[in-house]
Amino acid sequence: MDRRLRIGKILLRRFKAAVSSVLLMSLILAGCSTGSTEEGEPKDQADSSSDIGSTYPLKTSEGFTSWEALNNNAVTFYSNLAETPFGKALAEKTGVNVKYVHPNDQQTKEQFNLMIASDELPDTVEYDWTGRSAGSYPGGPEKAIKDGVILELNDFIDKYAPNLKKKLEADKELDKMVKTDSGKYYVFPMIRNPSGLVFRGPIIRKDWLDDLNLPVPTTIAEWETTLKAFKDQKGAKAPLSVTYTGGNFEIRDAFIGAYHTSNSFYIDDEDKVKYGPVDPQYKDFLALFRKWFAEGLFDKDFALTDGKALDNKILTGQTGATVSLLSGGLGKWMDAMKKQDPKFKLVGAPYPTIKKGEVPFTGQRDFKYNPGPSKAITTAAKNPELVARWLDYAYSDEGAMLFNFGIEGESYSMDNGTPVYTDLIKNNEKYSLQQMVSQYSKPNGPYEADERRNWNTFPEQDEAVKIWSQTDAEKHTLPAFLTPTDEESKELGKILTDVSNYKEEMFVKFIVGKEPMENYDAYVTQIKKLGIDRAVEIYQNALDRYNER
């Protein structure tokens, strides 16, 4: 019944769109037969640019609704983006009052799915539309467009987004990333700067290492020695701990990459797509963490550890090593402890390898296009031209400064042509730089991140980026913006759901010792029965098509 209702709603939306198209065409034809504009061009009722203008602030009294996550740091101060200094400045600069709807941070995927199923769509949605993972739109952008959920943006970018259009024309690789295989643009993209591609990796207590006369570990063997010392000599209850929320084991590919595999899909040395959790060598990783779990080196409560729990374990000395973010982990924890324990020190550690001196097979490295914080315009938008104009402001010179640095004179000032954060931001006695920045700018979203923006407050952060960058991740990371066809996406959605659920269930069982390692082959057989080989084939086809764009 639910499926029939959903299909009925989609068909109704398509019908409405078709009727609107017929009405629109009749208006256009009527315009052609009754006269022209003063410039001699036929009247086009769909082009409202003459009404709202092409400069900011726009000439409009209209508003619309934007569905997007509110930055975790901003939540410290405000419950809605419109209330922040950034939100108020954006409304003033663009002339558009936007109503923001923020999903619960822990239930974003569930609330997104409910919103789509309800057929009650906002005008624009900031979300991952790629269809690549369980946390993105099922079927990807081509299906979202075909379903009548979001609009194809080619004409809108061409007519109403000159700033974004200019960037896409100047960067062919970026242009290739942000559209489908058939050439359809579907979002206003988040564009990372080159220095912002690496921001996650292993983190370890350097003050503990110094006390124990131990070097920063680089190999699996050295890590084992270090974790034993943390447990035995520092009293760490969970020497190594990571978050595990929503089926996401946030160790990502640290330690796993040491065995030349991945915790998900990856590209091997022959440029072929593989699924790491069925590789023979993945068993070696599971055996390692099973051993560490049994010996108390890996957190006994890892399956229950969310962000707040990990914060507590790091800050209270229960944990001496983890895998986390540059600012939201290393920087946050150093900042929290700088007065409480001046000796407390964290550093980034290299991604572990088996052999000393080996370049890590993979690690965290993203691409310049970040799908997650990118915005699509939905078919429910009453004035999509206005939405497009509003979104394009972020890619203008003026908009870029607001999105990246905030409000001049309040959050930043110009020093010899370079934006510099004010004391309010960088020397706040109560709040961290990241917390303060989140009020005045948009840490993630549809705009281009400025190369001059740097949220690092400790030299250890700058050094961590250099260390974490020394991997072959660029070669082995499967792009997050591949676009399977509609039919492929239907297959992929079911396969990934079934495989992910089973894989995560068995992952925990293997590590905690509830499943014998002798059953690994049976586990692989079951994942293959669930269709993983077909999923690999679909991704390979999508990768091949992407490379041919």
TrEMBL record:
First and last residue of the signal peptide: 1-35
Location of region: Disordered: 34-54
InterPro entries per UniProt: Bact_solute-bd_prot1
Organism: Paenibacillus favisporus
UniProt entry tagged with the keyword tRNA-binding: no
Keyword Signal among record annotations: yes
Keyword list, A-Z: Signal
Protein name: Aldouronate transport system substrate-binding protein
